[in-house]
Each structure stands twice: as structure tokens, then as C-alpha cells.
Amino acid sequence: MSDNAKAKGRKRSILVPVLLVVTLVACSVAGYAVWRMMNKTDETPEAEKVTPPAAPVFFALDTFTVNLVNADNDFDRVLYVGFTLRLPDEETRRRMNDYLPEVRSRLLLLLSRQDATTLAKEQGKQALVAQIKQVLAPPLVKGQPPQGVNDVLFTAFILR
């Protein structure tokens, strides 16, 4: 055999194992990557996991119908309003339910002082929400903690 043929045979004999090793390494890396992706677990620590928010506590009140004051002393101005209170906890809801006549009395007094022209605007309704939160904040009876009202949600609002 010629020297050229021997060198060619030697290159081929070295080339085949090298290609075989490179192919084996590439397949191993690809297999490991697929295995890692398939068996990927949630590796976030417990402190970083987001806890779902607590279920909201709502307290629905019956609708209120009150006469409103206005500059013309027109007694035909009537407000028919219903709302639901969003409370911080179940204990506040229970306390408000136990003293419901006191809660309704405070709200009736507040609603009867409202001005019809003010309530016709969006800012008037937002101001009413703030006033409701303020009037319900003091304790219902001595020795109790103050009430917290997170939000006031209107369920009915008719101004006539």
C-alpha cells in the first residue's frame, strides 16, 4: 500500500471514534437537559410563595329611604340607597350584626343630612363613602374596639 493510503486509513480510524465520542457527549447533554426540564420542581423558598388573600367579609344592609335637604326646602327629594360594607374580619361583622339598630341609626342620621345636589355628582358619592366609614368607625358601645370599614359598595342608588 502506498503511504498516501496508509495515512488516509489512519485518519479514518481516528475520525470514527472521535465522531462517536462527540455524538455520545452531545446526546448525553441533550438527554440531561430534557430530564431537568421534565423533572423541574418549584424551587422557590416557602417565604417567597404568595399566599392567597383571605376571603372577603361582607355585611349587607337593607336599603335606606330618606328625605334629603336642599336649598329650596323641597321635601320631595328622596334618596333610596342600598350598600354592602366590606369589613376587615369576621369579628367586626359579628359585632355590627349584634348592634345592627345602632349601625342603622347612625347611617340614617348621616343620610338624612345629605344634600341632593351634592349626591347627584360622582364626588358627592365618594364623599358619602368617606362619611359612612367615618360615622361607623367609633365603637358601638363603650369598651369595644373601633370598627374598621374597608369599603362601602353601593348596591342601589336612586336620587329622586
Automatic annotation (TrEMBL):
One GO BP annotation of this record: bacterial-type flagellum-dependent swarming motility
Membrane topology reported for the UniProt record: Single-pass membrane protein
Function noted in UniProt: Controls the rotational direction of flagella during chemotaxis.
Taxonomic superkingdom: Bacteria
Species of provenance: Paramixta manurensis
GO CC terms, sorted: bacterial-type flagellum basal body; plasma membrane
Residues annotated as transmembrane: 12-35
Similarity field: Belongs to the FliL family.
UniProt keyword annotations, A-Z: Cell inner membrane, Cell membrane, Cell projection, Chemotaxis, Cilium, Flagellar rotation, Flagellum, Membrane, Transmembrane, Transmembrane helix
NCBIfam families reported for this sequence: PRK07021.1
Compartmental location: Cell inner membrane; Cell membrane
Keyword DNA-binding attached: no
Protein name, as recorded: Flagellar protein FliL
Record's keyword annotation contains Membrane: yes
